[in-house]
Amino acid sequence: MREAAAAALLVVGAITMLLAALGVTRMPDLLTRMQTTAKASTLGVGCAALAAAVYFGELSVTVRAIAVIGFVFLTTPVAAHAIARAGYFAGICLDPRTAPDELGAGVIGRDAPGAREPDEPPASDGGAPPP
Amino acid sequence: MSGLLGLGAPVTSIVLGLLTASLFLALRRLVLGPSLPDRVVALDLMSMLSVGILATYAIAAGQPALLDVALAIALVSFLATVGFARYTERAARSPGGRPHA
């Protein structure tokens, strides 16, 4: 019974990670690739570690698995946010279907990434974003 | 190990095969990726895949100590990703321009 549950968790985690790898191969730009890998690999690692905890059924293994899961769940969104922000300011090519680009429209000039610090107010004083 | 998930049993072999295929897909993005952040994302995914492979192999080999290795890899990959992100963002904001886009 425990082995069957561990096997099901392993298969679900492996399929999720395969979907993450397919996403990083097939998605059109950096932001979509990043969100695919962040969510899917988090779930895949969580399932794999949970499978190990279920399979061994000892306290020390369960504590380690919970440590892995908690750490991955805490750090993956932070890392994904950091790399997405860095890539945006580095001026990566966004997919043309990226509809609301509020960071580029209101904070920095999208045509000149890095030309202005995002903490500085925009140049237009009326609050209207520059075209 | 014996039973459903023992070494050589179908489930762990299939799972390890799927994860290895995922590693090759991520390697393709790592080689082809047009910009540095794309490659960083691919590297992060590869480290997460190795964590999954280690957890699976811990079950297959009956070695729970491999979970410690998985935890260490998760730690190091987070530090590497954040370091790359800081470096890229600082380089993009410096007057030199946009070196890696």
Give me the secondary-structure topology:
The complex is a heterodimer of chains A (131) and B (101).
Chain A: H1 2-26, H2 30-56, H3 59-89, H4 102-107
Helix pairs in contact in A: 1-2, 2-3
Chain B: H1 10-32, H2 36-61, H3 66-93
Would you kindly provide a written description of the structure presented here, covering whatever features stand out?
Chain A folds into 2 domains: 2-94, Helix Hairpins (Orthogonal Bundle); 100-131, no CATH class. Chain A has 4 helices and no strands. Chain A is mostly helical and 131 residues long. The model of chain A is unreliable at 111-131 (pLDDT under 50). Chain B is elongated, with a radius of gyration of 17 Å. In chain B, helix 2 runs antiparallel to helix 3. Chain B starts with 9 loop residues before the first helix and ends in an 8-residue tail after the last helix. Chain B has 101 residues and is mainly α. Chains A and B meet through helix 1, helix 2 and helix 3 of A and helix 1, helix 2 and helix 3 of B.
